[in-house]
Write a structure and sequence with these properties.
With 184 residues, this protein is α+β, with helices and mostly antiparallel strands. 64% of the residues lie in helices and 16% in strands. The strands form two sheets. It has a three-stranded antiparallel sheet. Strand 4 (167-170) and strand 5 (173-176) form a beta hairpin. The relative contact order is 0.09.
């Protein structure tokens, strides 16, 4: 019986070693599957992080853009009112020229005070005069040429000869171009 027990023990050992080999192979397979599951989860996490970062960046750009648009809107909110006031300012300029021709100094001084008050109020609201003077080189980006006349001298060719109407800007935006006569 000892021989039978030995053979039986041998068979049990063989089966056990096969089971151990299968268990080892299964454990390795499970580890590989676990790694691939872990790798899959890591890839999914990376994709979600990327989507989150892109969404966050897009939102930050949106906030920056809307803030910039709001600031621009505040800067130009007065534009319609200021445009409506420009003819009044032009009339004041013409009135001052005519009143200065008369001998009534008190009238001239009173109108001048009102004119200065109006100008200073408009300046505080952001209105600026576009500076174009006779003799300046003509630039179509900053002035509107009404007509061309023969230049009084050769050095005035292509330059501003006369300014017919002042131009104004609000911030960096020109809201009315100066109207000029250029020499040809």
């Amino acid at each position: 019986m000892t021989t039978e027990n030995t053979e039986f023990d041998q068979e049990i050992d063989d089966v056990a070693s096969e089971n151990n080999a299968n268990d080892t192979a299964n454990d390795e397979q499970n580890i590989i599957e676990e790694l691939s599951v872990e790798e899959q989860l890591a890839q999914d996490l990376a994709k979600e992080k990327d989507k989150f970062l892109r969404l966050f960046a897009e939102f930050e750009n949106y906030k920056r853009r809307t803030t910039k648009e709001r600031i621009e809107l505040f800067k130009t909110a007065n534009q319609e009112v200021l445009l409506a006031m420009l003819p009044v300012l032009d009339d004041f300029d013409r009135a001052i020229v005519e009143i200065n021709k008369s001998d009534d100094e008190l009238l001239a001084k009173g109108v001048e005070l009102i004119h200065e008050k109006l100008k200073s109020t408009l300046v505080t609201k952001g209105l600026e005069v576009v500076d174009v003077k006779p003799g300046d080189a003509f630039n179509a980006d900053f002035a509107e040429a009404i007509t061309q006349i023969p230049a009084p001298s050769d050095d005035m060719k292509g330059k501003v000869v006369d300014v017919l109407e002042k131009g104004y800007k609000l911030g960096d935006k020109i809201i009315r171009f100066p109207k000029v006569v250029i020499g040809s």
